Amino acid sequence: MKAREISPLALDSYQRAARVILSNHLVTQTYPDRIALPLLRRWATELREDLMTLFGYRLEVTETTARLFTVSDRLDAGTPAKTATDRTFDRYRYAYLALALAALGRAGNQITLSELADHVAADAAQVDGVDLSTERASDRDAFVDAVGWLAARGAIALADGDAGGWAANPDAGEALYDIDRSVVIALFRPPRALQHLRSIRGLLAGADSMTDDETEFGTSRTVDVKETARRVRRALVERPVVYAADLDDQEQVQLALPRTAADVELLTGLVAERREEGVAMIDSSGRLSDVRFPGTGTVAQVALLLAGEIADRVLDPDTPETARMPLPRGRSEDLVEQVDSAIPQSGIFDSLAGHDGVEPVEPAPADRLFPVVEDQWITDTVRTLTDRFGRTFAAGWQADPDGLGRAALALLERLRLTAAVPGGVLALPALARYRGVVVTIRDRTPEIDLFQSSANDSEDITA
Questions:
Q1: In degrees rounded to 5, what are phi and psi of residue 106?
Q2: What's the whole-number mean pLDDT along residues 270-283?
Q3: Long-range contact list for 267-272, CB < 8 A, 24+ apart?
Q4: pLDDT at position 316
Q5: Which residues touch 185 (CB under 8 Å, ≥6 apart)?
C-alpha cells in the first residue's frame, strides 16, 4: 500500500485526496471545488495503486478531470441524483439527463438551451412513456434541473443568458452554454455496453466469468480471497454500518481481521468503530459522508430524537422484552427486478443482449436476531415528540406528524440504524450510539425558537 510510504506530515493531504475522489467519483476543474483537482493530480500515482489494491477501483486522471470507476456489489436506492434545491430526480429528469448527455456528445463547442431542448425532445419522442414538450412548464422545469446537474459538474458552463428565464418563458428567455467535451466523455463510461445487458446484474461485481488461466484451484482460491477482502472494504466506505449479519461466512472472516478496517483507516483518515455486531467507519471530517447525522432540519432532529427513544425502549431493563427478528433479505433483488422491468425486451436490446454473468448468491441466513419496535409505538412516540417540541419544527411538518415519522424512519433506515419489517422496524446495534439524547430549546428572541439536540457522539457516519 502506497499510503504506508507517505510521510506523516503529508498523510493528511493524501487522505483528503482519497476522501474527495471516493465521495465524488468525478472531479473537474470546478467540481466539487477548484482545489480538488490539483490535490488529486498531486497524488494521482499513489491513489491509482491504492484504490485498485483495496477496492478494485480504477482511477483515471487527466489535466481537466479525475474519474473513479467503481465496482458495485449491489444496487442502492439511497443515493439518487438531486437538483440544486435537493429535490430527488424522478424518471423524467433522469431521462432528460441521459438524453441531454447524448446530445452534448454530438454537439460542437457551444449550444443554446433551446437547441439542446429540441435535440432532447426529438430523442424523447422515440422512447415510450417519455416526451419533452417545451409548451409545458413542468417539462421545462425538469429539463432545466437535468441541465443544472450537468452544469454543476462542469460538463457545460453558462456563457450568456439565464436558464431560469427560459424555463419561465422559452419565447423570451435563452441561455448559451460552453461544452467541456472532456467532462462529457468522462461522465458516462459504463463497464459494459448497456444494449448488451438483459439484466442490471451485468453491471454488478462478479458479472464477468473467470478466464481459463484462473480456473486452477490455487489461483481461483487466491483470487476469491482477494476479491472477498475488496468486497468488505468497499462495504466499509459505501455503507453507513457493515453488520456481520449481512455478510456470508468468508466476508465475516475478512471483516473480523484488524487489517481490513485498518487499511481503510490509513487511506481515508476515517476511524473504525468496531463492535461485536459489525464495524462503522466514523467520518469526523464530514468530507466523505453524504448525510450528516446528527444534522440540522426538522427531519434530522426528529430522527435523532426517535433514535434515542427507540434505544431507550430496547435497552431499558425495566421495559418488557420485545419480539426479535432477523435482518430482512432480498431487498437488493427487489430493486434489480424493478430496474430490469424497464429494459426493452425487443429490438436492439434483445438482439444484442447476451449472458449477464454469474447469478447472485444471497448470503447464508444468520442467527442474529434484532428487537422489533411496533409501528403504533413509533407513531405514538412521534406524536408525543411533536406535542413537546412541535413549535420548533418547520411549519409544514407541524401539521403532519405521521409524515414526519415516516421521513425520520426513512433517514434512520438509510443510515442502517433501523430496518423496516412488517408491523414495525428492527432496532439495529449502531442505534445505541444515540441513546440518551439531550434536548435544549434556546430562545434568542421572544419570537424565534431554535431547536438544538446533542447525542453521545456527533461524528458523521458514511452513507
A1: -100, -5
A2: 91
A3: 267/1, 267/3, 267/15, 267/18, 267/50, 267/54, 268/15, 268/18, 268/19, 268/22, 268/237, 269/12, 269/15, 269/16, 269/18, 269/19, 270/237, 270/462, 271/459, 272/236
A4: 81
A5: 105
Q: How far apart are CA 185 and CA 106, in angstroms?
A: 11
**The C-alpha cell that represents 172 in the structure block:** 423570451
State the CB neighbour count (10 A cutoff) for residue 417: 28
**CA–CA dist 311, 21 (Å, integer):** 35
SS3 434: helix
**β-strand partners of 68:** 59
- Beta pairing class for 438-445 and 424-427: unpaired
Lowest mean pLDDT among 179-183, 193-197, 399-403, 422-426: 193-197
Amino acid at 65: T
What is the rounded distance in angstroms from the CA atom of residue 42 to the CA atom of residue 19? 14
User: Containing H/E element for 219?
Assistant: helix 217-238
Count Cβ atoms within 10 A of the Cβ of residue 42 and give its class: 0-12 exposed, 13-18 middle, 19 or more buried: middle
Count other Cβ atoms within 10 Å, centred on residue 399. Answer: 11
Question: What is 375-420 written as a DSSP string?
Answer: HHHHHHHHHHHHHHHGGGS-HHHHT-HHHHHHHHHHHHHHTTSEEE
pLDDT of amino acid 456 = 43
Question: What distance in Å separates the CA atoms of residue 155 and residue 435, rounded to the nearest whole number?
Answer: 45
- Compute how many other C-beta atoms are within 10 angstroms of the C-beta atom of residue 123: 18
The pTM assigned to this predicted structure is 0.82
Q: What is the mean pLDDT of the chain?
A: 85
φ, ψ of residue 204 in degrees (nearest 5):
-90, 160
3-state secondary structure of 22: helix
pLDDT in tens, 13-36: 999 999 999 999 999 999 999 999
